[in-house]
Every structure is written in C-alpha cells, then in structure tokens.
Amino acid sequence: MRPLFSCLFLGFGLAVGVTHALAEALPLSEWRRELAAKPQGDAARGGALYAERGCAGCHGPDGMADDRPGPMLAGQRPLYLYKMLLDYQAGRMAGADAAIMASVVREPSRQDMADLAEWLGALLRPAAAEAPEPPIVRGDRKRLIPPCSACHGAHGQGWDLQPALRGQNRDYLVKALQRFKKGERSNDVNAGMSQFAVKLTDEEIRALADYYGR
Ligand code: HEC
Ligand code: HEC
After folding, report:
1. Ligand 2 within 6 A of 148 CB?
2. Same-domain pairing of 151 and 116
3. Which of 2, 87, 116, 128 would be 46's cystine partner, CB 3.0–4.6 Å?
4. In this structure, which residue's CA is closest to atom 36 in ligand 1?
C-alpha cells in the first residue's frame, strides 16, 4: 500500500502546486480602481502594435480569427479586452492557451493594452451564423439561471466588462463556458459566470455556442 499512498500524495501536491500558480480573481473594488486608472486608448497606435507584435498570426488580420487558434477580437468591447490582457499578464487565467497569451503580454504596458483594445473595439464585429434561439438563452428560473441578455445585451453585443458573444468562434464559446462550468476559469468578477455555468448541460452549452457563434 505504501508506494501507492506516496504516489497519491505526490499527485495531490502537484495538483495543489498548479492551483496555487493561478493568481486570484480581483475583487470588484480593485477592478474599479484599476479601470478608473486606465489610460485613454489611441486606436491608430493600437493598430500599429497589433501588426508589430504578430497578433494577426493567431487572431487574424483586423481581429477576424475565423479558423485561427485565437478567439475573435474584432468589435469586442474595449474595456473587456483591456481587462483580459491584464488578467493574462497577471496570471489570472489557467491553462496552456492562457500561457500563450501570458507570454504575448509579458511586456506591453497599460498604455499599449489600452491602445490595442481601442483599435480592436472599433473594428467591425462579424455576424453570427444565425442558428435558432435555444430556450436557455432566456435563462431558467427553476434552476436560477439568469437570461444571457441581462448582462450580454439583447443581441449578445456586450457592454463594458461584459463581452460580446455574437460572432465569436463557436469552439471558443464552448471552451469558455466549459471552463466556467468546471471551475477552470475564475477571473470573472464576483463569479458572475461561474455561479450558474456549473448548471448548464453540455447540450445547452453547444446550443448557446451555435446561437451566438459562427
Ligand atoms: C501564438 C498565438 C497568439 C498570439 C500571437 C496572440 N494571441 Fe491572443 N489569444 C490566443 C489564444 C489561444 C487565446 C485564448 C486563450 C485562452 O483560452 O485562455 C487568446 C486570447 C486573447 C484575448 C482574450 C479574448 C477573449 O474573448 O477572451 C485577447 C484580448 C487577446 N488574445 C489579444 C491578443 C493581442 C492583442 C495579441 C498581440 C499583442 C495577441 N492576442 C497575440 C493566441 C494568441
Ligand atoms: C450576471 C451577468 C452575466 C450573465 C447573466 C451572463 N454572463 Fe456571460 N459573462 C459575464 C461577464 C462579466 C463575463 C466576463 C468575465 C471575465 O471578466 O472574464 C462573461 C463572460 C462570458 C463568456 C466568455 C467570453 C469570452 O470572450 O471569453 C461567455 C462565452 C459567456 N459569458 C456566455 C454567457 C451565456 C451564454 C450566458 C447565458 C446563459 C451568460 N454568459 C450570462 C456576465 C454574465
């Protein structure tokens, strides 16, 4: 029994180590302070940085990431983009894909991030594939699931820190919702997503991604 036990302990230790490597989500009060200090973004400079830093390789020219490894960025809410870049830099996002972004944003300053967000946010948001609306979009009172529109807007267009969902890559939407559901993404302020995502079924997640995504 002994060797098995020590293996389990070693496994446990490693798992704890990995969990600890993830920086904790910032509370709302600290985000308020952080966002109040956000520099004004310069879109022209942001466009130049986007080209210089090779963002297009994974997110496509003009933020249109169709068939590329990164999510769609064109027309995403600037404040959300800015927050995500800070989250990657501070190590608040877990997983191998987040590690790619963490290395991409090791250097950029807050001014760089504000400029990138300003430029990307002003680009044309791509259309969704227009799959039929699944009932879960309107939430489920019995299971205490709020309607998506309460935070993401009537058309999934997003607002402030609530990202646009419409036009996002389908696979990325599934990945994001599964991460919230499994507790692998905890950078959402006040657990705004994680508190109910855990109740979504895999079928509902697929239907939501079909509806909002492309
Ligand atoms: C080598 C590929 C690669 C490069 C280069 C890259 N990204 Fe990313 N980016 C990704 C991947 C993959 C993700 C998804 C990460 C995850 O799942 O956590 C991502 C996620 C993001 C997100 C989060 C979007 C969302 O909806 O949550 C933003 C913002 C972003 N990248 C901006 C940029 C910018 C700006 C640059 C250039 C400075 C850049 N990326 C360069 C691969 C890349
Ligand atoms: C209480 C407000 C709230 C509700 C209701 C809500 N969301 Fe969110 N959602 C957020 C916030 C805030 C974020 C950004 C989290 C962060 O900062 O990382 C988010 C992020 C997401 C993301 C990640 C997007 C990306 O680019 O990484 C997806 C996908 C998403 N929500 C889908 C949904 C769906 C589908 C519903 C309805 C079932 C829904 N949300 C309902 C607040 C909400």
Report:
1. yes
2. no
3. 116
4. 55
Q: State whether the beta carbon of 184 lies less than 6 angstroms from ligand 2.
A: no
Cα separation, 174 vs 208, in Å, equals 8
Answer yes or no: is 151 a known binding residue: yes
Enter the DSSP assignment of 162.
B
Q: Is 193 annotated as a binding residue?
A: yes
Q: Token pair 């791509």 is at which residue?
A: 126
How far apart are alpha carbons 82 and 116 in whole angstroms? Answer: 8
pLDDT in tens, 50-101: 999 999 999 999 999 988 889 999 999 999 999 999 999 999 999 999 999 9
- Asked if residue 178 belongs to a domain, the reply is yes
Tell me how far apart the alpha carbons of residues 173 and 166 are, in angstroms, rounded to a whole number: 10
7 occurs within a structural domain: no
Shortest-distance ligand to the CA of residue 208: 2
The residue among 208, 136, 132 whose CA lies nearest residue 175 is 208
- Output the CA 131–ligand 1 centroid distance in Å: 26
